[in-house]
Amino acid sequence: MYVYRKDGSKILTVIFAAERGMEETRRTYECIIIGAGPGGLQAALHLGRYNRRVLLIDRGGGRTTHAAHIVNYLGLHAVSGRQLVATGLKQARSFGTEIVRDVVTRVEKKDVFTVHAAIACYQAPFVIVSAGAVDHLPNLGNLSRFFGKGFYTCVDCDGHLTTGRKLLVMGNSLNAARLAVGMKKMYTDDTALLLTDFDLPADDRQIIEEEEGIRVYSGQPAALLGEEELEGVLLDDDRVIPCRAVMASFGWGLNDGFLSGLPLDRDRENFKIVTGSSNESSLPGLYVVGAMKTGHSQAIIAAGQGAAAAIDINSQLLEL
Length: 320
What we know:
Elements: E1 2-4, E2 10-13, E3 18-19, E4 22-23, E5 26-28, E6 31-34, H1 38-49, E7 54-58, H2 81-94, E8 98-101, E9 104-109, E10 113-117, E11 121-124, E12 126-129, E13 133-135, H3 143-146, E14 151-152, H4 155-158, E15 167-171, H5 174-186, E16 191-195, H6 202-211, E17 215-218, E18 221-225, E19 232-235, E20 240-242, E21 245-249, E22 252-254, E23 286-288, H7 299-319
Helix pairs in contact: 1-2, 1-7
């Protein structure tokens, strides 16, 4: 069954299919945005202002919503990630973006893209992926109490919050050691390093301890200590490392499983997705913004990428 505009062009396709005893609705849009990160929301705003038929599919949560303090977003003195996303969703709706809560499981492309989700399937000639990343974190007691409020994972986002504080950098790679040196140079002389499941080469350890003045611990963190404020880290052997802030460096992964069937160029580590200047991937019509693409990832950067992708998509739609 088709629904038509007044000029006769088709805008909606409804296909009924028996799947698990339920009807499947397949809708056609001009652009589908996967993920309500800053990049996806900014793209929705721009495309909505062009009066494009846009669907934003969001599973909820996301790394941005965990940010307690965003203070480097132009025009905003300070905002939480949750507030930023909530406001963006309202703005996107105000320009006609349709928003559904669903989990995307697969994306295919033939003539157009088909986005398979848990509830329904959707189609569009263009897709913007803003699904972000997830931090790898140790199993720590009281983590939720201090996450974003003493326990941090992004030096570019929250490093300034450790200025002048007693800091513990923890991680499981040489990158954590490099981070500890960088944090001391930028933010606080009172910096220590906890390495988990990783042995620092003897020469590197000597440089960090003797030349940089950073005490190095080895062990498995078990819990964060403190009530209103972070006071230390408890190890599984009952040792306590006093600190007022933690910067964790255990790496992170991309929320890109639903893209596994697509031929996308990636970086040398086969990790992040390579895009062009307008954030279009090697697969024409598929754009990637935010943490999933090569380059730096912050809310303000992702928003600019979303705007650029939307402008490029609208230009291509005008040429169709």
